[in-house]
């Protein structure tokens, strides 16, 4: 029964990930077309990137809040995997930076993502421990 629940949860998580991928692929094009139409062809790259960032916040919010409680553990595992990519970017920012600001921000990002990964694994292991049978 637990394996059926886990398989169902993984299928739902996979469907959610696929819908997020589709939305993430379509969002920049939609923003670009809207901005191109409004600005008459001239658009500031900062505004374009800011609009994509704001849209990604909304997509992330609605995806996370629509996840059922049974899927929170797999969602945490995926979040940890994404955070590991951020570690690579932070290490690059610290290692090959030309200014002190990039080194500082890269170090802060490295510390924060390390805390996020460690905490995520703690929460995931604790959630998985709830599903284990207790030995008497």
H/E element string?
HHHH
Please identify the structural class as seen in this structure: mainly alpha
Helical content stands at over 70%
Characterize the main sheet. none
What is the molecular shape?
flat
Look at the structure and give the mean pLDDT.
76
Number of strands: 0
N-to-C CA distance: 21 Å
- Detail the poorly predicted runs: none
Strand content: under 5%
Compute the number of helices: 4
Using the CA coordinates, give the radius of gyration. Answer: 19 Å
Describe this structure in words.
With 136 residues, the protein is mainly alpha-helical. It has helices spanning 2-39, 45-65, 72-95, 100-130. It is built from 4 helices and no strands. α1 (2-39) runs antiparallel to α2 (45-65). The chain is flat, with a radius of gyration of 19 Å.
Descriptive tags:
mainly alpha; membrane; 4 helices; NADP_transhyd_a_C; flat; NADP; single chain; proton-translocating NAD(P)(+) transhydrogenase; cell membrane; 136 residues
């Amino acid at each position: 029964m637990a394996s059926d629940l886990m398989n169902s949860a993984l299928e739902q998580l996979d469907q959610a990930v696929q819908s997020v991928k589709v939305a993430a692929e379509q969002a920049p094009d939609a923003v670009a077309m809207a901005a191109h139409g409004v600005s008459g062809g001239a658009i500031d790259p900062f505004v374009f990137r800011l609009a994509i960032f704001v849209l990604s916040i909304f997509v992330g919010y609605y995806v996370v809040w629509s996840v059922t409680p049974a899927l929170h553990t797999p969602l945490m595992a995926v979040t940890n995997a994404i955070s590991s990519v951020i570690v690579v970017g932070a290490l690059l920012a610290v290692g090959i930076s030309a200014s002190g600001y990039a080194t500082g921000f890269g170090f802060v990002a490295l510390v924060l993502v390390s805390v996020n990964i460690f905490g995520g694994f703690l929460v995931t292991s604790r959630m998985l421990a709830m599903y284990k049978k207790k030995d008497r």
